[in-house]
Design brief:
The protein is an alpha/beta fold. 45% of the residues lie in helices and 13% in strands. It contains 15 helices and 11 strands. The two termini are 38 Å apart.
Length: 333
């Protein structure tokens, strides 16, 4: 069993990565149904929280059926981070996570997210400050380093553990790489080889199948895996990986009926939680993966990613079901 502070997880947990405009309650509910062990919210600006900005505060919404859950924050100022930690604690998540990995320019330029990888001393100081200002277990998500010349993650992991974090998730790329190239897990493995390390280490980056999850589990010795982009529009990734880890067998992919039903459920929840405009817009990135590889899907997908009319969207999903319901999965992809 893996423990993050007092939070007990499975023997080899699968985590949903915090992703902006993706890891919201509608999507988290679907991932939980498919076997995700622990999820994180979208990352939340500490400045937005302390200013009571609507979008930031809404991201604090968590529900009992998605526990255990971590709320992730990002920022660069000690006092703002402390105030935000107090606000997060009131929302009663199981874990408070600090984002030291987001590579987006508008975050990095403020020395937040992966930007703080340019100043490791400040990164450690800020983490120490947060750990001391909350009763919640604090975790960190970060990257290997700022660039190829600053991959200090093995040392950084030890320093973060020393100031009290309870788990560390590492994306196997530098900030300079963004999401390009192949994730390098070798340094994540070196963290696990360090005899001084005793907190759980979760690897992140490029895991998109049960076979790869098992290979990386065995090769790098991580305590669990955090799934990000492979889950977008495909919450079944969690059940497929778990099935493979348990049996060594590749699970049959979801049927067209299941894909359409889950896409409709997702859209319904998104509309309820975000409203008509954002609920429709922020669903669009999911449709490609819901029906990835389907022959002749382009006309249907074009409607899904351009329409602003919810009736048309639901009707289009039904048309997809009708179009493909008599096809074997091998004929669809």
């Amino acid at each position: 069993m893996v423990k993050i502070g007092h939070v007990e997880l499975s023997e080899f947990p699968l985590l949903l990565a915090p992703m902006e405009d993706v890891s919201d309650p509608p999507f988290r509910a679907l991932c939980k149904e498919q076997g995700c062990d622990m999820m994180y919210t979208e990352f939340i600006s500490v400045e937005g929280l302390i200013r009571d900005a609507t979008k930031s505060v809404q991201k604090l919404d968590i529900y009992d059926d998605e526990r255990p859950i971590g709320i992730q924050i990002f920022g660069a100022e000690l006092d703002s981070m402390r105030q935000a930690a107090e606000i997060v604690e009131e929302a009663k998540p199981e874990v408070l996570d600090i984002n030291f990995g987001c590579p987006v320019k508008k975050v990095v330029c403020k020395m937040a997210g992966a930007g703080i990888l340019q100043d490791i001393d400040k990164m450690v100081e800020l983490t120490d400050h947060i750990v001391k200002s909350t009763s919640l277990p604090v975790t960190v998500k970060t990257r290997l380093g700022w660039d190829d010349n600053t991959k200090y993650i093995v040392e950084v992991a030890e320093r973060l553990q020393d100031v009290g974090i309870k788990a560390l998730s590492v994306h196997g790329r530098t900030r300079k790489q963004m999401y390009k190239g192949e994730a390098d897990w070798s340094l994540i493995g070196k963290i696990k080889e360090n005899p001084r390390m005793h907190i759980p280490i979760f690897g992140n980056g490029d895991i998109d199948s049960g076979a790869k999850a098992l290979e990386y589990k065995n090769r790098y010795g991580v305590d669990g895996i955090m799934i990000g982009r492979a889950s977008i529009g495909y919450p079944w990734i969690f059940r497929e990986i778990k099935h493979f880890l348990e049996t060594g067998e590749v699970l049959e992919p979801p049927t067209i009926h299941e894909r359409v039903e889950v896409a409709k459920q997702h859209l319904r929840k998104s509309l309820d939680w975000k409203g008509d405009v954002l609920g429709i817009l922020e669903m669009r990135r999911h449709y490609t993966n819901y029906f990835k590889g389907f022959a002749h899907i382009k006309p249907y997908r074009a409607v899904l990613v351009t329409s602003h009319d919810e009736t048309e969207l639901f009707d289009t999903l039904e048309l997809i079901r009708e179009r493909y319901e008599n096809y074997a999965l091998s004929e669809i992809v």
